[in-house]
Amino acid sequence: MIILTQIRHLKTYTAPKQHSLAELNALDRERFVLVVGPVFEHSPWIAEQAWRERPFRSARALHRALCGVVLASDKPDKLALIRAHPDLAGRAARAGTLSAASTREQANGGLDRLSPEEAALFAKYNRAYRRKFGFPFVICARRNKKAAILAGFERRLRNSREQELETALAEVFKIAELRLHDLTIA
Predict the structure, then answer these.
(1) How far is 169 from 75, CA to CA, in rounded Å?
(2) Would you call 3 exposed, middle or buried from its count of C-beta atoms within 10 A (0-12, 13-18, 19+)?
(3) HSE of 93 in the Cβ direction (CA atoms, 13 Å)?
């Protein structure tokens, strides 16, 4: 796994806007983790393990490799990945401490423009969801607006914990796919 100083460095590293697949394939392990690691929220271990599978023939193959690392991981690592995601319109968003990608994604879903009533509803659902499942509600905000997200809370709160683990991971994979798309030159 990555050493602590490298993880701290992730917070200050700003990757160039886009990279070609050839550039990503040519990166050494440390640099690959710095560039691709943020595709999964605060979970650079995924990129570190996927690096071994280079060269990737396409961005889709890279995404499959990254998701494969997650799927092959144990349940505690999967839970840690899900728990690395912030609450939607939660404390971190209000404090301005979200990652740049999360900030952009939540804004895309309209979560930066909530009325006081909507903010209270998001807070209520975030608490109920965490209380029931033990991890944050994860949904691809770039593919959903606030009304759809609120409906997702209501629908998914009826699921079992195992269903929600699967659903949350599927949403994490959607988020990672879009972040990877932003990172790579087509």
Answers:
(1) 11
(2) exposed
(3) 23
Catalytic residue among 9, 63, 85, 181: 85
Q: How many residues does the chain have?
A: 186
Tell me: do 92 and 70 sit in the same domain: no
Q: Is 19 a residue of the active site?
A: no
Same domain? For 45 and 92 the reply is no
Signed CA dihedral, 83, 85, 89, 95: sign only: positive
Residue-wise pLDDT for 4-34, tens only, equals 333 333 344 344 469 999 999 999 999 999 9
- In the chain, the number of structural domains is 2
Domain check: are 65 and 103 in the same one? Answer: no
* Residue that terminates a domain, selected from 64, 80, 96: 80
> Model confidence over 61-120: pLDDT tens digits?
999 999 999 999 999 999 999 999 999 999 999 999 999 999 999 999 999 999 999 999
**Predicted structure pTM score:** 0.89
Q: Which two tokens stand for residue 165?
A: 């683990």
